[in-house]
Design a protein that fits this description.
4 strands; two-stranded antiparallel ribbon; two-stranded antiparallel sheet; 18 helices; 3% strand; ABC transporter involved in vitamin B12 uptake, BtuC; mainly alpha; globular; 427 residues
């Protein structure tokens, strides 16, 4: 009896700790369910819209993980990576490049630009250690002014461009650039598109096979194997055997190549953390002073983290724009950092810890709420515009709560790693 009471207390303690750790995620889950109910929209429509949002936003959210692990907080300066991508997209349209050729050219232009910008951002953030989140946010606003100057006065006046992208009768780049005529609209998404049910069964089979192989190689425990295989079988059977669930998902298609790129980025985030560079990211994120005493070049490691994040965010913006079909020249980048930062925080990430799972869950919940907030606002308050205001309120609110919680937890001094422990991690 006494042993049973101890187990109950241990379980209750674990539940309380989990709720404290993921309180923002649970609140968002409850809000999402509530808003779905009040929106009155068909679940099939909500699911289809959500998959579209996931395909164009998830890559950017995953780009935030490495700087967080390196102890640099939410890299709101990914906005600058998005600007670099928009330069590449604009030039591809100007040169009349079509389809995947145009997207690859834009990605090629984005790489050096975003890497350069990332180097400058990282170098500046090294001068303001401890304030990187706020610093990167301010940098995004500052860079936006330089971006406006570049596109309004330099492009088209100093740097000649064709009439395809410039304002007729004036200087500067047009406010909206249409990619449908050049074939870049959905160029990536439309390469291979399959039904959601087919994608689910295929992914479940791959996860099951990979889990069994890892278990045989003794790289995975029996508990982990059971969780992965059980989850895969459960969701597959849920869609296959429950008619109402099958009805919701059957009309939705999945852009296979886009999600494969997302999967590649997830694998990249996992693999790089197992390399020497990834262990340096972790060591610097846990304690800069101890990492420096162990021979790690802290500033260089932090700059590399920001450079990788900025380049990935630029490529993510290309995925986003090709999905929409139009480039809002002066506005497409403005909310990139804010929404991506809010999404990853919703998934349970903090300013010093983040995983692929947290990014995916956060993106799912955040954009589910975005999908239904306008209709729910109309139902609850009689005004659809309230839903739009609620979106921005939620984004800023999540970030504010995360900052407060981080400061509160920071008051509880954790035991720092010793130099020997850091050296062991980086070998």
């Amino acid at each position: 009896m006494a042993e049973l009471n101890i187990q109950r207390k241990s379980f209750a303690s674990a539940v309380r700790a989990n709720v404290r750790e993921y309180i923002v995620t649970y609140v968002f889950l409850a809000l999402s369910i509530l808003f779905v109910i009040f929106s009155g929209r068909p679940l099939s429509d909500i699911f289809s819209q959500l998959m579209g949002r996931m395909s164009r936003n998830l890559f950017i959210v995953l780009a935030l993980i490495i700087p967080i692990i390196a102890g640099m907080g939410i890299n709101f300066a990914i906005t600058i990576g998005a600007m670099a991508a928009q330069v590449g997209m604009m030039l591809a349209i100007n040169w009349q490049l079509e389809g995947m050729t145009g997207l690859l050219a834009a990605a090629g232009i984005t790489l050096p630009l975003a890497a350069l910008f990332g180097f400058l951002i990282g170098s500046l953030l090294n001068k303001m250690k401890g304030q990187e989140t706020i610093g990167s946010l301010i940098l995004g606003y500052f860079a936006n002014g330089a971006y406006q100057l570049l596109f309004l006065f330099i492009f088209g006046k100093i740097i000649p461009l064709s009439d395809r992208v410039t304002i007729i009768g004036a200087t500067g780049v047009a406010n909206t650039l249409n990619m449908m005529g050049g074939g870049m609209y959905m160029a990536l998404d439309s390469l291979i598109s399959i039904p959601f049910t087919t994608a689910l069964y295929g992914v479940s089979a791959l996860i099951t096979a990979a889990a069994i192989i890892l278990y045989v190689l003794k790289k995975m425990s029996l508990k982990q194997l059971s969780i992965l295989v059980g989850s895969s079988v459960f969701f597959s059977l849920l869609v296959l055997l429950v008619p109402s669930v099958h009805q919701i998902v059957k009309g939705t298609s999945v852009p296979l190549v886009t999600f494969l790129l997302v999967a590649v980025l997830c694998v990249f985030n996992v693999i790089i953390m197992r390399t020497r560079l990834g262990q340096k990211f972790r060591a610097v994120g846990q304690s800069r002073s101890v990492a420096n005493a162990s021979g790690i070049n802290v500033n260089r490691t932090r700059v590399i983290a920001i450079m990788i994040s900025t380049v990935l965010a630029g490529w993510g913006q290309i995925i986003f724009i090709q999905n929409l079909g139009t480039l809002q020249t002066y506005a497409a980048h403005e909310m990139v950092g804010l929404y991506a930062g809010a999404a990853i925080l919703v998934g349970g990430a903090s300013l010093n810890r983040a995983t692929n799972t947290q990014a995916i869950v956060g993106c799912l919940l955040f954009h589910l709420l975005f999908t239904v907030s306008q209709d729910a606002g109309k139902t609850l308050f009689g005004d659809a515009n309230i839903g739009e205001f609620f979106r921005v309120f939620v984004a800023y609110g999540v970030i504010a709560v995360a900052l407060v919680m981080y400061a509160w937890k920071g008051g509880k001094k954790a035991k720092p790693l010793t130099a020997r422990e850091v050296q062991a991690k980086t070998k």
